[in-house]
Design a protein that fits this description.
Structural class: alpha/beta
Largest sheet: 6 strands, mixed
Low-confidence stretches: 272-306, 870-912
CATH superfamily of the largest domain: ABC transporter type 1, transmembrane domain
Number of domains: 4
Radius of gyration: 41 Å
Mean pLDDT: 82
Helix content: 40-55%
Number of strands: 24
Strand content: 5-15%
CATH topology of the largest domain: ABC transporter transmembrane region fold
Number of helices: 41
Amino acid sequence: MALRGFCRADGSDPLWDWNITWYTSNPDFTKCFQNTVLVWVPCFYLWACFPFYFLYLSRHDRGYIQMTPLNKTKTALGFLLWIVCWADLFYSFWERSRGIFLAPVFLVSPTLLGITMLLATFLIQLERRKGVQSSGIMLTFWLVALLCALAILRSKIMTALKADARVDLFRDISFYVYFTLVLIQLVLSCFSDRSPLFSETIHDPNPCPESSASFLSRITFWWITGLMVQGYRQPLESSDLWSLNKEDISERVVPVLVKNWKKEFAKCRKQPVKVVYSSKDPAKPKGSSKVDVNEEVEALIVKSPQKEWNPSLFKVLYKTFGPYFLMSFFFKAIHDLMMFAGPEILKLLINFVNDTTAPDWQGYFYTVLLFVSACLQTLLLHQYFHICFVSGMRIKTAVIGAVYRKALVISNSARKSSTVGEIVNLMSVDAQRFMDLATYINMVWSAPLQVILALYLLWLNLGPSVLAGVAVMVLMVPFNAVMAMKTKTYQVAHMKSKDNRIKLMNEILNGIKVLKLYAWELAFKDKVLDIRQEELKVLKKSAYLAAVGTFTWVCTPFLVALCTFAVYVTVEEKNILDAQKAFVSLALFNILRFPLNILPMVISSIVQASVSLKRLRIFLSHEELEPDSIERLPVKNGGGTNSITVRNATFTWARSEPPTLNGITFSIPEGALVAVVGQVGCGKSSLLSALLAEMEKVEGHVAIKGSLAYVPQQAWIQNDSLRENILFGCQLEERYYRSVIQACALLPDLEILPSGDRTEIGEKGVNLSGGQKQRVSLARAVYCNSDVYLLDDPLSAVDAHVGKHIFENVIGPKGMLKNKTRILVTHGVSYLPQVDIIIVMSGGKISEMGSYQELLARDGAFAEFLRTYASTEQEQDPEDNGSTVMGEEEAGVTGISSPGKEAKQMENGLLVTDRAGKQLQRWLAVRLECVGNCIVLFAALFAVISRHSLSAGLVGLSVSYSLQVTTYLNWLVRMSSEMETNIVAVERLKEYSETEKEAPWQIQETAPPNSWPQVGRVEFRNYCLRYREDLDFVLRHINVTINGGEKVGIVGRTGAGKSSLTLGLFRINESAEGEIIIDDINIAKIGLHNLRFKITIIPQDPVLFSGSLRMNLDPFSQYSDEEVWMSLELAHLKDFVSALPDKLDHECAEGGENLSVGQRQLVCLARALLRKTKILVLDEATAAVDLETDDLIQSTIRTQFEGCTVLTIAHRLNTIMDYTRVIVLDKGEIQEYGAPSDLLQQRGLFYSMAKDAGLV
């Protein structure tokens, strides 16, 4: 009654009247309802949103948007609306002044509406100042206001059309103006404002339109349409894809996760350990809380906590991505509740068809309600998916980034447990698991919520019979739990096998050239198949388990419905399954089907993600190298004149192992050139690694002043242009860049390369020779212009005269780096007189140190060493590689980074295509679902139109199944897009299977006799070689005959084609023209294995595989232990291997990283000695060993391969001076050929090379 008085002075206007609104053929709202509820609803909505929205805007400032015509219009209309509302208010006051007393509602409603319009105007301006280009809050407000006004408008028009109508002219006109203004505001809100000032998108050539799209465009994914049209007209290129939103780029995403992980990890490190201290100062009061930091305390009792507390990666992921992801909860919850609107409206629709007296408009009302409900569900669901996919991609990016960063800094002991295979899997498989889970994780609470709601509504519909269906579901729970446990077990086993397989495949692909040269493919194929067999066993079990799981879960909804209906009908006779009960129940069972089917997927996804979570946690918790173990001082004000100071330092590769370097003490003045010399495996490269903080410091003090640059022993090359390999992310300074290229002797190479320095370098520098790779690696270091240079024997892979050029122009006293501090590991003796300090190493210690003259005068080990090699002293240009380290990182890690540096920022490419793909899916799904919603609309509409000729059963059938269409269309999109994505794998496999294969391994018809080759005569007849059909010849018309038993040296400048000759001999590349004849058999006519088993090579890159030392020497187990030990003795490795705890079973790390490069080359020599074929090829095989070991190797080759044909590619000319003949190659052609003494007399190319090497 109070409200009646509020609406009309005489109390004759009720708030609600069913007879006016519902039970009538022409429905309308009461005037009281129109003046209160319909006016207040938009007001209450905006005031309810205001505090939260204000808080959000104050925290998310995107910049300032200048006043635009759009903004000015919206603001002006806001003020106009306020004026219109308050005009009504003042009109009411004016009426009162004339004695017309209207109800209080005519004062309250305009006042409230006017204030709300002021608030809306304020928000329009606030949004502009905070950089909001389009607002969902405001669009919804104007939409609600318009819908409420529409109902009032209809009522006013109906009233005005009545004959005896009393019209309130002023209020009606003001309302029509209000309605028009609200309509215009709604239309304007559909458009987006301009970008804020200083927005990053302004400078972006192809910005993502999402951030600047209007709210309407965002919820319907309309902003993607442009790309779809473009893709329809022509195939999309990667350049057509938009840039990423700034909040999605890895530079933003990765550091946040890494920072949060470090915090969590540090918290666990500081876990409370109960320590009772006894103070050494008795005067200190017992309860004193202020403890002097320097006070000596003694721990008496240390009680370790009961349970070890691991850092929680889940907590870190939640902290990093949770807030944004939580929005998906909101969308999912509303969507789930709205899902049940369908069956409820269906119930009303069936009742409507059954009730012949019901007015037609009710049927149309239900139809519209059903359609609007379905459309809202579509929009909500895809906003939910959008948030999930974006979150999933951010998590995936962050995890990949965190793993990548961690891989650069984990300690060497940790590197042993985390193989390349595992790291690759963590970045691909495990990171993908989180992305998959992001879509499903909400089903953990959503599925039970849907099940409970469905069962509740079924209870209302069918009564206690529903319990029969519940019983079926409960019975399935323990069964499912057991399956989840088994799945997890299989998952762990599968990932372990997968890690091993990827590790092995990675090694095989890295060392494929060596495998081919040795014809070891079959042995390694068996190893891969063994691992794969194990993996397949687990996969098969998982597949059976998944099949059983899928079968039971597909059956479950059907069984639930069957049991419920059966019990309902049999329990009581009066229980009749009519159309309403049957189809409403079926619609609810259909809703129930999805959560019941999805739950097993969710559980399996959670199980997989928990396995991945644990693997990632373990990897990210690995011990890191400590960059602080080395004190880094600034160049200016760094104190003292020494650039590097090391005092009594001991270093180890792993805490559990004995130290590699003991008691190292030295200091190097700024700008000094220091040479580090010593035998293979004495710790030269380890010393550089220690200075890079790649080793663990056990004790001592190390200080380095300024920035570091490092040139590794084995060059690391990126798959990029030669220029980018040298610049490595630095800015191009043309003059400096040219001088670096000239100094590093790269100018002649640039002339040969097809596109100069723009030439694309293949993976691992495949289209560069060993020497070219080394010079590019050196040029990269020189270009970065650091203060201290650590050079790990960079001259070993280049020829004597090139080495001389580089020393003079780069490293030496007059080179580009003359003012920098340089530490050069070398086996070359000729430059030692030009260095400032020589450090002589032996057994991990510094045995001698001083200048060249001082060491000679001291007459110690160094002087003796020099006297021994006095004959070769002048020749040894910078050529020989020192021992590389025990834990040289995965290819490239040592080459580019140490803890003190940050690797180049990861690319965002992965995310761009991934994100675009997901958004295109959403675009298509929204549109497809709208088609489905139209099917629902028309099914309901035709049911209403034909209500008198249709039975309730048919209406129920058509509408309940049309409700399912949208779900199936949605899944159709997802499945087809997933198939599209996954079919790429099949296409790639197909493409790979169609690549050109090498010749057969065995050809029975042409197989040579077992005793072939008996003589070892090699004949090149007009032989030409090219690497690809479209490239020039790298070898041109080679005509040469090498008689059996001859020792032939092959020399020439780097890139002259020396190694290409060996590739041709082993048929790694087939001849373009001409042929090679070995003992009267054309090698092109026989099987590859028949050829490669009969020739032995000691390759340029000493490649070892993970596995035992014995497996690396003899993978087919063809030889006895005695023969293997004999080969090791002849290769001067017996003492080293005997000292190992496991002897021949010593486990080699990936790539043989726990042996020095010199030791690896000796292992390759031992392989050759085991095979002992008639033809031996040495491809710069002694580049990485010291002079003493080189001499021993040469003498071994002379004695052990006395009757064999030996072809040696040499940089050290002294090793081939006693050979029978020498081939001099230049630009792929033989320039000179003859005995070394004859060639020297000719004074040609060979003479000039010998002169450069100081041999003449």
